[in-house]
Amino acid sequence: TYLRVAIMGLGSYASRVAEAMQSCKKAKITGLISGTPSKLKTWQAKYNVPDRNCYNYENFDAIKNNPDIDAVYIITPNALHHPQTLRVAAAGKHVICEKPMAINAKEALEMVDACKKAGVKLLVGYRMHFEANTLDIIRMRKEGAFGKPLFFQGLSGFIIGNPNQWRMNPALSGGGAMMDIGIYSVNGARYMLGEEPLWVTAQETKTDPQKFKPGIDETIQFQFGFPSGAVASCLSTYAMNYLDRFFLNGDKGFAEMMPSTGYGPIKGRTHRGELSHPHITHQTTQMDEMAGIILEGRKPVVPVDGEEGLKDMVLIDAIYEAVKTGRKINLTLPRILPV
Ligand code: NAD
Fold first, then answer.
1. Most buried residue among 83, 215, 216, 307 by CB atoms closer than 10 A?
2. How many CB atoms lie within 10 A of CB 231?
3. So what's the ipTM on this one?
4. Is the residue at 183 inside a domain?
């Protein structure tokens, strides 16, 4: 048995996921949802999807009655994740949703609640949570190889191209680099240190206000403080290419990854030597592991559920608030951030 997945949104990342899923053992594309009939035709031919399993954005609620579909993988612009997740949940299908899972914590919480109520699983497309070198560092940290972890640095950025794309439209993106690429450092700070932040500070800079309109952040530096006393210092930007580096230091050792979250191969080393796992297409591993979570109730080492996505949204909300107010934001949301 395998997880039968309908892909929603046939854009560039969906193409990458679909290609990678051809090597999956436990997951298979059985359905397609798109607003563009010509794309549906091409994808149907390539992935052998029958007409009865193809939908558009008006009629996809009918997947409710389609026994060929277990889950929908939502790979659309960020602001659409929330309404689409609620509709998929209402249709009784599991949801796999791309990052950022929503454009703020309020929406993310509604998604978590809706999926819980509908009795379906909600997973977020955190592909790094299944990447072998990343998991090696997490295992070493748990074993105490770095001693007491005290510092994380996350640098996430690339130069955004076409200014007319949805990523540059706040109504569809919910923000700029932070929502798109900075989230990798937000998320990475948490899984590399293995703690949830207590406070957030952040500063924004804009070198090109023509290109980056209000509501679209170009560059944000942010800092987290953790209960153990560890701190994180991170940069999110749409203004530099090849910025993709994680660094973790404890009182006894270090881990350095560069690239740390790109499509791979992931490279890096610790004080003990080079990271050595061979490259496997991230999305292939991700979708097989997610099938295991949904079909067999497997528990991943680093969670990828809605609550996990929600924690990042709470932190991104706090980062934007810190930028706006210039204040240190204390996180006092016990329901959302259990220690
Ligand atoms: P894209 O623009 O290439 O694709 C988006 C798709 O959504 C297009 O096919 C578009 O037609 C469709 N769409 C549906 N309704 C739309 C609307 N109202 N306006 C605009 N487009 C609409 O974008 P992408 O790079 O594939 O990103 C899609 C999602 O995947 C984003 O949430 C992004 O953050 C995420 N993503 C994740 C990763 C990762 O590594 N996990 C990588 C890239 C993108």
1. 216
2. 17
3. 0.99
4. yes
Taking each continuous run of H as one helix and of E as one strand, the counts in the chain are 10, 15
Catalytic residue among 99, 126, 238, 320: 99
**Does ligand 1 lie within 6 Å of residue 242's CB atom?**
no
Alpha-carbon span 320 to 332, nearest angstrom = 16
Residue 23's Cβ-side half-sphere holds a number of Cα atoms within 13 Å equal to 11
Q: Are residues 156 and 232 in the same domain?
A: yes
Do 149 and 211 share a domain, yes or no? Answer: yes
Strand pairing report for 219-225 and 199-205? antiparallel
Q: Is residue 294 part of a domain?
A: no
**Ligand 1 atom closest to Cα of residue 10:** 9
Query: Per residue in 247-269, is it b (16+ CB within 10 Å) or e — as a string?
Result: bbbbeebbbbbbbbbbebebebe
Q: Quick one: pLDDT at residue 333?
A: 53
CA of 335 to the centre of ligand 1 (A): 30
Annotate 263-274 with DSSP letters as a single string: SS---EEETTEE
Catalytic: 184? yes
Host H or E run for residue 255: strand 254-257
β pairing state of 71-74 and 54-55: unpaired
Same domain, 24 and 36: yes
Split into its structural domains, the chain has a count of: 2
Q: Using an 8 Å Cβ cutoff, are 159 and 240 in contact? A: yes
Position 338 scores a pLDDT of 39
336 — pLDDT class (breaks 50, 70, 90): low
- Print the domain residue range for 149: 128-280+300-330
Interval 62-92: pLDDT, tens: 999 999 999 999 999 999 999 999 999 999 9
Q: Are 48 and 26 in contact (CB under 8 A)?
A: no
For residues 246 and 267, give the distance between their C-alpha atoms in angstroms, rounded to a whole number. 10
Q: Answer with the residue of higher pLDDT: 127 or 339.
A: 127
